[in-house]
Write a structure and sequence with these properties.
The chain is α/β, with parallel strands linked by helices and 410 residues long. Helix content is 34%, strand content 17%. It is built from twelve helices and 17 strands. A hairpin with a 5-residue loop joins strand 16 (385-387) and strand 17. The longest helix is centred in the first third of the chain and has 18 residues, at 2-19. The radius of gyration is 23 Å and the shape is globular.
């Protein structure tokens, strides 16, 4: 037993070392993947409730020992590998399963794509407690603000936070070891995974497939939950915007920064002032606009939770024409959840962007995507943008306003 314990400590230290040295990590994962494909490493049997790269079939018996290791995934994933869950199998074969602990290491937008799944799972398992475990730190994969949204999701009974770290190569191998130590006995530890690739029709569809749920013909929009009465900060800003936006053509909401691509649109002031000149009231969560202008409001994210921002927009939508201009980030999914017209600025070439698209989004792009509807793409000529860096472009404000007028001013 001591020898096993020592090996586990060594392996944990080794993994920690690799995470800090990306070239070594890449080499190690390449060797591990080659061993998996060529030598058959990692092809051990799995419990009946999950399986690698294919959905677990129905069964009435379990061949694996139902010890504490049965309740969580046995090993790290290989690159390009996925996990599928059959939670019904777990309940059929193990009477000691007490609940589901869903582990999240994702951003706010990523979470929004999962929201249609939780209601469907709760219909299937109405008496099973749902616990949420959320990474407590901001990094390229994770936002702890997901925990705030889960706390307002009626399908989750309790929310907890854990300290973890991202894997430099395989995002699904996020270090959630601390979460495993917090999960109560008898709860399945279920990392929330999705696929993102050219062969995937949509991220929402992938999450449905991951949990073995019937995939809707059209990806359902994100589900948002708001209190019956707005929070004081929401009510205060609602009254302020109602007064200022009265008599305007409508309200344009801007989100022109992206954590995932480390991008901030550099011409916020010019864009906002151009929209104001056309008769709109402008709101923004991205800094850099004309805060001295009475027809402009910058949302102070220190005062608002992200859900309160969405709640404010949902209330304004009931009174004013409301539009979104957003780079490919959280407000692509959020605008779909709120069912708002969105001029989506695709600021870099991502051939998998169809995974993230909803029909409310008119995509401005300098590259036509074959897997997006052509009528939903606005091709940007070279004179309409300038290079931001080697991969990213900045659309000129006058062109953004031109496209906005063409699409949304009837």
């Amino acid at each position: 037993m001591r020898r096993v314990f020592a090996i586990l400590i060594y392996m944990n230290r080794f993994q920690t070392f690799l995470r800090k040295h990306r070239p070594l990590c890449v080499a190690y994962e390449a060797l591990r993947y080659a061993g998996h494909k060529i030598l058959g490493w990692g092809h051990q049997p799995t419990p009946v409730w999950y399986q690698f790269d294919q959905y677990p079939t129905d069964t009435d018996s379990e061949s694996q020992p139902m010890d504490k290791n049965w309740y969580h995934i046995a090993r790290p994933l290989y690159r390009h590998e996925h996990v599928f869950y059959n939670l019904q199998n777990a309940l059929k074969t193990n009477p000691h399963v007490k609940g589901f602990a869903f582990i999240f290491f994702m951003g706010i937008g990523d979470y929004l794509y999962t929201t249609p799944v939780w209601g469907e799972l709760k219909k299937k398992f109405p008496h099973i407690p749902f616990y949420g475990y959320v990474g407590a730190q901001f990094d390229r994969n994770n936002s702890p603000l997901v925990g705030k949204l889960l706390s307002e999701n009626p399908h989750f009974d309790k929310i907890f936070y854990f300290n973890g770290s991202r894997h430099p190569l395989i995002w699904k191998n996020y270090d959630y070891e601390e979460a495993l130590s917090q999960i109560p006995e008898g709860f399945l530890a279920i990392p929330v995974y999705y696929e993102y690739g050219l062969q995937i029709s949509h991220r929402v569809s992938s999450v449905f497939e991951t949990f073995g749920l019937p995939v809707p013909q059209k990806p359902p929009r994100p589900v948002m939950y708001f209190p019956q009465e707005p929070a004081p900060v929401v009510a205060e800003h609602l009254q302020q915007v109602q007064e200022k936006a009265n008599g305007k053509k409508g309200i344009v909401f801007l989100q022109l920064d992206s954590r995932g691509s480390n991008y901030v649109y550099p011409q916020m002031r010019e864009l906002a002032e151009g929209l104001i000149a056309r008769g709109y009231y402008v709101m923004s969560v991205t800094k850099g606009g004309p805060t001295e202008n009475a027809d402009y409001l910058e949302i102070d994210i220190k005062k608002f939770t992200i859900n309160q921002t969405w709640h404010l927009l949902s209330l304004l939508k009931q009174e004013f024409p409301l539009y979104v201009i957003a780079v490919n980030s959280v407000f692509w999914a959020a605008s779909a959840g709120l069912n708002l017209p969105n001029l989506g600025l695709q600021h870099w070439i991502d051939k998998k962007v169809h995974n993230l698209w909803y029909p409310n989004i008119e995509v401005v792009t300098d590259y036509l995507y074959p897997l997006l509807p052509r009528e939903k793409q606005i091709f940007a000529p070279p004179e309409s943008y300038t290079p931001h860096n080697r991969k990213i472009i900045d659309y000129k404000p006058e062109w953004v306003i031109k496209w906005f007028v063409e699409k949304f001013e009837k």
